[in-house]
Amino acid sequence: MQPLLFLRLWIMVFLHYFVWSAWYVTMGTYLDKTLHFEGGQIGLAYGSTAVGALVSPFIVGILADRFFATQRILACLHLAGAGLLYLVSTLETFGQFYPALLAYTVTYMAGHGLTNALTLHHSKNPAKEFPLVMVMASVGWIAAGLVVSWLKFETSASMFHLAAGAALVMGLYSLTLPHTPPKGANAPISLGTLLGFDALKLMRDRSFATFMICSFLICVPLSFYFSWMNVFMTELKIENSAAKMTLGQVSDVVFLVLLPLLLPRLGVKGVLLVGIAAWAVRFGLFSAFVSNSDALWMLFVGICVHGMCYDFIFVMGRMYVDKHAGEDIRAAAQGLHGVVTLGAGMFIGSWLSGVVGEHYKRGDTHSWQEIWMIPAAMSAVLIVVFALLFKERSRETK
Do 206 and 106 sit in the same domain of this protein? Predict the structure, then answer.
């Protein structure tokens, strides 16, 4: 890939993830402290991205793959998203806020598949070039967190204004991206293909079924982190919380680099077990920190294991699915994995995290020790279940 093309794709990925980070990390604090939404409502708001992940395959699979150039669909989605984000910033009741946010997340989550497809289309060596381009996802996420903290937007609707402005820039910039024509104009289409249901036959394998069920279940504790972490830090009077949370994305890059080195030594099962255990350790540290507020290292270690939590579960999971599935159903298997995790798992997890947060609300604050112990216990149980039921094949490790 030529350096200029690398630069163009880097900017695309940077802007795309900057938009998401600008509102997603601190939205819980804004909804809780400024709009005074209930915990269940905050959970549903965070679950909107899961709904978007379930609906977006239709946009990508029908429009982008069959009728329109990828860069034009991406531009239209981000331009529409900019308007929806601004609308979201003006709404203060849940009945109005939630439908508008849902509409926006459908447009945004479709962009994930489009940015991936555009990058892969123009890569001469996808295995080498795609990860290098996607490093800018973490950079964009970090940059947005730093800007939000610097401008003190954690409890303000201005976070949505920042995201809307970035989405507008992204929409216009997308029109300048390399032409990427639709690939499947004459290809047959089915609901099973779009949602990955054609890969359900893989569930006959006990280990694959264990992997998929545990991937679904680990999204429940994961949702607690995204829904409540910024609120947690805000209530503990930790300044510039959004900026400090970006340490998690720094660790993303570190552990992504380490993953190819660890995989031959630990194997697929070992990497996935370490990833699940990292969630249990993270939430255990957060719970312990509540009664040991002088031990700031607990908080920062909990944030910095994010790379293990995310890369060892989701990146390793995608690699496992790719290796386990045959050539004929590989795309369907990846679609099924996305529906199970980013779709169903994140939606149920976000809803449950909201219910738990509301249950342990005490006036203007929360009983954080109890809140964090629940996902810690869930993760600990999954360690045992996965260790007993999952068995890997040697070719998957390679």
Answer: no
